Structures are given as C-alpha cells and as structure tokens.
Amino acid sequence: MTHLELFQAFVAPAIFISAAGLLVLSINARLMGIVSRLRAFHKDKHLAAVAGKRQEALILQAQIESIEYRATKIRNAFFCTLLGTIGIMITCLILGLALYVQEALIVGVIVFVLSLLSMLIGLLFYISEVAISLSSEKEEEQFYELIDVMSEPVGEQR
After folding, report:
1. What pLDDT, on a 0 to 100 scale, did the predictor assign at position 60?
2. pTM recorded for the entire structure
3. Which of 68-77, 102-111, 142-151 is least confident?
4. 2 FRET partner, CA 20 to 30 A, in 29, 79, 113, 141?
5. Contact, 63 vs 38, CB < 8 A?
6. DSSP classification of residue 153
7. φ, ψ for residue 103, nearest 5 deg
8. What's the pLDDT tens digit per position in 78-115?
C-alpha cells in the first residue's frame, strides 16, 4: 500500500467521524428535549397525585409511557451511532497498522462495514422516533383538552 492509497483510505473514515459527530449532536439535542419533557410530566403527575387528582395522574402516566417509548428509541439511536463512531476510529487505527501488517486491511474493512451498519441502525431508530413524534404531540393536545374538561365545574362541562 502506497502512502497515497493509505491517505485515501484514511479520508473516508475521517469524513464519517465528522458526519457522525453532527448526527450525535442532533440526537443528543433531541434526547435532552425528550428527557426534559419527561421530567415535567413526572412532576405534573406527582403534583396531581398529591392534589388527589387521580384521573389526571392516570392520564399523565399514559403520556409518560408514550414519551419513555420515544426516549428508548432515541437512546438506541444515540448508542448505535456512538458505537459506529468508535468503530470508525478503530478503523483508522487499523489502517495505520496496515502500513506494517498487510493482513490488517481485511480486519479494517470488516470493522468499517460493521461500524457503518451500526450507524445505519442508529439512523433507523432516529427515523422511527421522528415518525412517531408528531403523534405524541397530538396525544398531548388531547391530554390537555381532557384536563381542561375535567377541571371545569360540573355544571359548565361541554
């Protein structure tokens, strides 16, 4: 392997590391938003339970479960993408080793392909979470409408 070929072999993983970094940043921002929302719902559920609003607490629990489902998808996306990024970094190290041990190229290709598959799986988790995020927002809208109806005095309900 010439130095030019080695340089070319290093470029692809380096580009993927940069792309993966941006993807991880995006996933992390989404995860933090979901976690913040989950904390707010847990707090609201606790306050409803303390105030004796059992029905409201049950509705909030359903929302919590929905958001936890989304959080699991995002966590999986985050994990798979990070795993893929680590694999690509390892690929770079293996390619460096291939300067001295030619057989390392086969291992490098295998690690690179597995890393890409891991990132692809992460993207699939990310896409599936994004696909259900709007339905989760619709559930929240119905949830707030239900709480509004429940909090109206008995004689004024629609």
Report:
1. 87
2. 0.76
3. 142-151
4. 113
5. no
6. -
7. -65, -15
8. 999 999 999 988 988 898 888 888 899 899 999 999 99
